[in-house]
Every structure is written in structure tokens, then in C-alpha cells.
Amino acid sequence: MQVDSATQASNGAVPEVAPGEPIIHVRDLVVGFGERTILKGLSLDVMRGEILGFVGASGGGKSVLTRTILGLVPKRAGTVAVFGQDLDGLTFEGRRALEQRWGVLFQQGALFSSLSVRQNIQFPMREYLDLSQGLMDELTIAKLEMVGLTADAAEKAPSELSGGMIKRAALARALALDPEILFLDEPTSGLDPIGAGEFDELIATLQQTLGLTVFMVTHDLDSLHTVCDRIAALADGKVVAVGPIDTMLASKHPWVSAYFHGKRARAAGFGSEGAR
Ligand SMILES: Nc1ncnc2c1ncn2[C@@H]1O[C@H](COP(=O)(O)OP(=O)(O)OP(=O)(O)O)[C@@H](O)[C@H]1O
């Protein structure tokens, strides 16, 4: 894929990714903190319109990769390009234009606890757009309905919501700017299996109706099986397997094999006993 920084308009206009080119393109990425190197030459492509599940051992660097793609963590080497734009070559305006095209649901601190749900959802609108209060209020209700919440959730504080409602409200905030890419960090963690299943269905529905590309960090085997088009597995600081679930089940890499054929995978009905 060609990342042509010369085409990156300084006015923030964004060149389109050619059909068949990855929407997120990571090559030879090295990220570390002090003496520790976490990502050791990681490469990964995410294609437009897919739901890519990203798995790996706890502490392996999944959140670090997400945060590096978002430009929140500095890299030591390698390339990160989103929508065909090398993150390194961006002007301030170019960077802001890019940020409006993705939405993020972080694992921790999904919502600002001191703000109402309405204020949370309007936060990115205020940051990036110049809309009247009336229009923002209308959009807020539309986003809440999109994620299966009713309008009366808007005036609630996060502390008044159940865990599942917090995830949905956070998703509504991630959708506030009509993003093309959704980054989800452990979206179903903390939810019971039914709540997690419903959230998975919601993500699949949104992906289809809005044409989203979804990058999802998850440990949830059910999510990986039910909603992900492809899975990428992280081990030893690199992507060691990438492909549909069958690729994961066939992988000989020790971590991937242990994960997809382990006790939890078997309990969920996958793995050595055959994929369901
Ligand atoms: N800002 C930072 N400064 C120092 N170390 C960090 C920083 N951010 C992450 N790390 C370290 O990088 C490693 C990878 O962290 P990361 O949160 O990406 O793991 P993860 O794969 O997402 O884990 P989990 O599945 O448990 O959420 C951890 O050892 C973590 O302590």
C-alpha cells in the first residue's frame, strides 16, 4: 500500500483509500516504555467494512497497539497509516480531520462520570463540530436509539446506569461523529453472557447498517466466533496469526493453539471438539 504524504492536504481534506487497500495499515511497529519493548515489529492490516477481533495474552500489548494507532502512544519505529494517511505526516488540521472519522470505546473510563449521558455524547460534538444545542439534542436522542437506549437515559448520570447501559451509552458517544472506524477495547468485559451476546448483536447490526469498520480488542470467545470476520492474534509483540476462525483453529502457534483449543474454548463449544 502506498502512503503518500504528499497527498495529505494541509487543509485537513482526506484522500480516500483505494478499494482493496487496508483502512488501517501497520508495518514493523515497535513500541516500548523505558527498558521494556512491548510491540516488536508488529504488522497488521484492517480492511474496510470488516470486524477484526484482536486477541492476545493479558498484558501483551493489545491496548498499547490501539492507543498507538490512535496516536496516543509514541512509537519507536514502524509505520501507522489510517485512511491511507501516515500518522507521522499529519498537520494539526489533518490530525483533527482524521480523529473525526473514528470513534473509540475504551475499556476503562468509558464515560466521564461527572457528566450526564447527554453531555457525554455531546462532548465530541462540541470538540469537533459547530452545531446548535437543539441539533445536538436531536442527534443525542438518535444516537441513544441507535444503541438501544431510550431518550430518558440522556439526563441520567453514569452512576445511575447498569453496566450494560454504560457500555451502550459509551458506544453512543463513540458514534457521535458518525465515524467510519470504531475502536472497541474489551467491549463485553464485565457483562453477563446474555448482556455480552446482546452487545455483540448490536455491534454486528451497527456494522452492517452503518458500514462501519470495527477494530475490537477482546478476550470473549463468543464475540470472536459470532461477530468477527477475521481475528488477529498477538504474541511476543507481533501478530502471529491472522484470518477467520478456521485459521485460528488450525494455527500451530503455541499461544494461539492453547487459546482456541483450551478449556474455556472447549467449554464454549469450540476448539478440539470442533468448531460449532
Ligand atoms: N504508559 C505506559 N507506561 C509504561 N508501561 C505501559 C504503559 N502502557 C502500557 N504499559 C505496559 O505495556 C504492557 C501491555 O499493556 P496493554 O494494556 O497493552 O496490555 P493488554 O494486552 O491490553 O492487556 P489486557 O488484556 O490485560 O488488557 C503492560 O505490561 C503494561 O504495563
Biggest sheet layout: 6 strands, mixed
Which spans have pLDDT < 50 for at least 5 consecutive residues?
A: 1-14
Shape: globular
Record the strand order, biggest sheet. Answer: 6-7-8-3-9-10
Beta-strand fraction estimate? 15-25%
Helix content: 25-40%
What would you report as the Rg, rounded to the nearest angstrom?
Answer: 19 Å
End-to-end Cα distance, whole Å, is: 36 Å
Mean pLDDT across every amino acid position:
89
Note the total helix count: 10
What does this structure look like?
The chain has 276 residues and is α/β, with parallel strands linked by helices. It has a domain at 111-178. The chain contains ten helices and ten strands. It has helices at residues 62-69, 92-99, 117-128, 133-146, 163-174, 193-210, 221-226, 245-250, 254-261, 263-267, and strands at 22-33, 36-47, 51-56, 77-82, 85-86, 102-105, 181-185, 213-217, 230-235, 238-243. The chain has a six-stranded mixed β-sheet. Helix 3 (117-128) packs across helix 4, helix 3 runs parallel beside helix 5 and helix 4 crosses helix 5 (163-174). The radius of gyration is 19 Å and the shape is globular. It starts with 21 loop residues before the first strand and ends in a 9-residue tail after the last helix. Adenosine-5'-triphosphate is lined by residues 33, 38, 56, 58-64.
